[in-house]
Amino acid sequence: MKAIVVDEDDQSLQWTDVPTPEPGPGEVRIKAAATSCNRADLLQRRGLYPPPQGASTILGLDVSGVIDAIGPGVEQWSTGDPVCALLSGGGYAEYVVSPASLVLPVHKNLRLVDAAAIPEVFFTAFVNLCLEAELANGETVLVHAAASGVGTALIQLCRAFGSTVFGTASRPKLDFLAELGIDAAIDRESEDFSARVDELTDHGGVDIIIDPVGAGYFPQNLHLLADRGRLVIIGLLAGSESEISLGRLLRKRLRVIGSVLRSRSLEEKSAIAEAFRATVWPLFEDGTVQPVIDRVMPIEQVEDAHELLTDNATIGKVVLTVEKSL
User: Fold this and answer.
1) Same domain? 152 vs 27
2) Which of the 8 DSSP states describes residue 50?
3) Could you tell me which residues come within 8 angstroms of residue 202 by beta carbon, excluding any fewer than 6 positions away?
4) What are 208-241's pLDDT values in tens digits?
5) Whether residue 148 sits in one domain with residue 52
6) How crowded is residue 269: how many other Cβ atoms within 10 Å of its Cβ?
7) CA–CA distances in Å: residue 179 to residues 184, 195, 243
8) How many CB atoms are located within 10 Å of the residue 309 CB?
């Protein structure tokens, strides 16, 4: 089969021949229709985010396609089933092996090319909003990088669950966020988001903040949390070192939560997938939520796709087609 391989010398990406994987016990093999780009791919390409032990070293954390082979012990899937899957690696390839427990059925109203944009960002949004932050009815949420793949997923889940949601993004993306249903879109370049959220909440603060930025926003985030508020840090785009006001944490009974998805055990991710199927997947089936896709490109143009992500020039996801007919 062919797959994208990172050149060890110059980190360029090559579409080249590699061995075709075989499914082991509890696994299925998917003939890929499409995959998507995630910021983790950019880091792994640079050698800064190695895959978990035992995972494929090929880039790619999502895939959609059709099951073409089944490993021992798998009973819930059949060859020919249209599916998408959350991966620990291997998505940038013609064939992908996945644990059967992390596979989702693609219903007839969802195109395979769209399904490839779902697993990584919507799993991430669900885990951090619902399981880590424990979103409750009527709570208010602040989402940083709200126009990203994870950000647009979070906004939709907040709306589906009846929560008020604010978000920060660059000016060219604010109109789209308004169309997506956000309650307030804040220009991170020209507005003081802390002052704006204070105004929006009458200085009462927000219950949950989901933040991929890290140290650059940490003091403001703590300031904006209401009593018993939860800050979930899911990335470190603006650094990893920051001072913390322990007094504020004590007085307001705040929680600061660090969260990752890729390196969790298969058992934990399987439990997450089961909860996701029950809670979120029906929202795709009835059209309440949907993947936000900036553009679709053939996988041979992966270098251009990575450049778009590096330049923050996208809203939602960039999808790479593997199947030529898409």
Assistant:
1) no
2) P
3) none
4) 999 999 888 999 999 999 999 999 999 988 788 8
5) no
6) 21
7) 11, 24, 37
8) 19
